[in-house]
Amino acid sequence: MPGGDGALKLKSMIRKGRSATDASEVTSVHIDSEQSLIPAHFRCRLDDLFGQIEREFENLYAENLTLQDEVKTLQDRLEATGDRFCTHDNTTESSGAKAKKSGSQISQKIKTTYKASTSRIVSSFKTASTGCQFVREYRGHRDGVWEVNVSCTSPQVVGTASADHTARLYCIETGSCVLQYSGHQGSVNSIRFHPNQELVLTGSGDQTAHIWRAQFNLPINVEPMKSHSSGEDDFESSEKDEALEEPDVLHEYMILRTPLLELSGHTGVIIAADWLAGGEQVVTASWDRAANIYDSESGDLVHSLTGHDLELTDVRAHTQQKLVVTSSKDTTFRLWDLRDKSMQVNVFQGHTQPVTTSVFAGTDKIVSGSDDRTVKVWDLKNMRSPIVTIRTDSAVNRLSVHSSNYNIAIPQDNRHVRVHDILGVRLGRLPRSSRQGHNRMVCAATWCGESQNNMCNLFTCGFDRRVFGWSVNLQPKD
Question: Is residue 331 a contact partner of residue 351, using CB atoms and an 8 Å limit?
Answer without folding.
Answer: yes
